[in-house]
Amino acid sequence: MFLCFNNESTKKWSRLEKKVEFCDLEQGMDNRKKKWLYLIILAFIWGSSFILMKRALLGLTPIQVGAFRVLIAAVVLVLIGFKSLKNITNRQWKHIVVTSFLGTFFPAFLFAFAVQKIDSSVAAILNSLTPLNTLVIGAVLYGFVFGRRQYLGVLIGLVGTVFLILKGAELHPSQDYSYAVFVIVSSIGYAFNVNILKRHLGDLSAMTVTVGQFVLLIIPAMLVVYFSGFFTSFNWGPASVESFGYVAVLALLGTGVAKILFNSLVKIASPVFSSSVTYLIPIVAIIWGIWDGERLSIVQIASAALIMFGVYLVNGKQKKSASK
Q1: CB proximity list for 29: less than 8 A, separation 6 or greater
Q2: What is the model's pLDDT at position 277?
C-alpha cells in the first residue's frame, strides 16, 4: 500500500490543494482482496505501535505520549486535508465528535498508561477484545445481524487470546494487570467507533472522516500538553529526544495513516471484519517483543495460530441488518 498525492485540480497548485488517497496496488482490485490487504497493513502498523509506545515512555510520561501522539497526527492531517471538512454536514458532526474521543483521544492515553505497567505484547493481546465488543454493540444498538460462522470466529479468537493472556501472566507475574482494564475500556471505545462509522458516516470518504475527527482534537491535545508540565520539566537530552522521535513515528503512522486506512476498511467490510485487525495485532506485537527481549512460549505460538483461524471464520458472509 502506498500513499499517492494527487492535485484536486490543475488550479491553485501553489496553495497545496492536495488530496491524500490510498491507491490500490493494482487497478481494479475487488473489495474482497482490498479488505484483506488493508487488514494486513493495519496489523503491521498497529502491531508495531506498542513497541513504539514502550520506547517513547522511556523519556516521556504516559500523558505526554498520548497528547503528542494525537497532536502531531492532527496537525499533519488537518494541513493536508482541511478542504475536505466542507463535505461534513451538521448532522454528521455529532457522530464525528463521538468517534474522535472514543476511537482516538481516550485510547491514546489509556494505552500509554497500560504499556507502562504491562508488556507491550500483552496490551496488544488484550486489545483483541474489540471484535467481541463490536459484535455485541452492533447487535444491541445498531441492529446488525451476524451469522453463526462469525460468532464462532469471534469466540475462537477470544479463546486464543485467553491462552495468550494466561501464559503471559505466568511468564511475568510481577506485572500489574490492573492496568489491563485500561486496554479493555479502550476496546469498548473502538467498538463504538467502528459501529458508528459504519452506520452513520459511511457516505463520507475515509480522509474526510479522519480529518474531521482530528480537527476536533487539536485544542484538547494542546491543553493536555500544556498542563502536563512538558514545557517546564522536559529534558532535551539524547534519550528524551529519541523518545520524542518514537512518538512522532507513532503519531504519523500508527495514528494518522492507520486511521485513514482503517476508515477505508470500514467502508468496504463489515464492522466485525474491520475490528478483527485486533486479532492480528498481537502477532506483530509479539514479534517485536521477542526482538526487544520479551519471552514467547510454545503455547503463545499455538494461541496465535488459533487467533488467525478465528479471523478466517469472522470473514464469513454477513447477513443484512435487521433494521435500517
Answers
A1: 37
A2: 81
Q: What percent of the chain has pLDDT over 90?
A: 28
In 174-275, where does DSSP find H-type helix?
Answer: 180-200, 206-215, 218-227, 230-233, 238-249, 258-268, 271-275
Burial per residue of 139-175, b for 16 or more beta-carbon CB atoms within 10 angstroms, e otherwise: beebebebeeebbebbebbbebbebbbebbeebeeee
Length of the chain: 324
The maximal CA–CA distance of the chain, rounded, in angstroms, is 62
Residue corresponding to grid cell 479471523: 311
pLDDT band at 9 (very low <50, low <70, confident <90, very high): very low
Reply yes or no on whether the pLDDT at 180 is more than 80: yes
CA distance 265 to 39: 8
Write out pLDDT tens, residues 183-192: 989 999 998 9
**E strand map for the chain:** 2-7, 18-23
Beta carbons within 8 Å of 137's beta carbon, 6+ residues apart:
188, 191, 192, 195
In DSSP notation, 172-203 reads -TTS-GGGHHHHHHHHHHHHHHHHHHHHHSTT
Kindly report the backbone phi and psi dihedral angles of residue 116, in degrees, each rounded to the nearest multiple of 5, phi listed first: -70, -25
Closest CA to 158 of 260, 274, 306: 306
DSSP-based three-state secondary structure for 7: strand
Rounded to 5 degrees, φ, ψ at 79 are -65, -35
Separation of alpha carbons 201 and 272, rounded Å: 16
Show the CA angle centred on residue 70, arms to residues 257 and 50, nearest 5°.
70
Closest to 155 (Cα-Cα) out of 11, 306, 269: 306
Q: Report d(CA 52, CA 190) in Å as an integer.
A: 20
Whole-model pTM: value is 0.76
Q: Which three cell numbers stand for residue 132?
A: 467481541
Rounded to whole angstroms, the Cα distance separating 271 from 269 reads 7
